[in-house]
Specification:
By secondary structure, the chain is α+β, with helices and mostly antiparallel strands. The chain is built from 2 helices and 9 strands. The longest helix is centred in the middle third of the chain and has 13 residues.
Length: 144
């Protein structure tokens, strides 16, 4: 089945940024596609749900945090599509630099703060779609 004949799954992705260089990644728990791979938190948009509303809901469910929804602290930096064997996804990637609470893996996922500017991250493997997001955040933060 080609990507064009598959329905597109809309996904909101939140890249939590602290200290202008650290981003939070979570390890997919067992029982999910790509279990053991690292990704940025987020999830599928529900019917008639905006990207920011989906992020607010997903990050509270997954991490127990409340994000700041204003454009100064939560804004979309890119949209990309990726064809995984289990789903064709459109990822709406938002950079978030203000939230309330300390992130905790509420869905039995490991969490790791990674320095976005390190050439080699200390976690592996990453979901394939995470790499373009990392490159975009690097260029966005460095102003290039």
């Amino acid at each position: 089945m080609s990507a064009q004949s598959r329905s597109i799954v809309e996904v909101a992705v939140g890249i939590l940024l602290k200290e202008q260089s650290l981003v939070l990644m979570g390890k997919r728990p067992s029982g999910k596609p790509y279990a053991g791979y690292w990704e940025f938190p987020g999830g599928k948009l529900e019917a008639n749900e905006s990207i920011t509303t989906a992020l607010e809901r997903e990050l509270y469910e997954e991490l127990g945090i409340r994000i700041a929804l204003d454009k100064n602290h939560c804004h979309e930096i890119m949209t990309l599509e990726h064809d995984y064997p289990h789903a064709y996804v459109r990822l709406h990637v938002c950079l978030i630099d203000r939230w309330d609470g300390d992130p905790v893996g509420l869905e039995n996922q490991e969490l790791s703060w990674q320095n976005i500017f390190n050439q080699e991250l200390t976690i592996n493997p990453l979901l394939p779609a995470a790499w373009p997001m990392i490159q975009k955040v690097r260029s966005y933060l460095s102003g290039t």
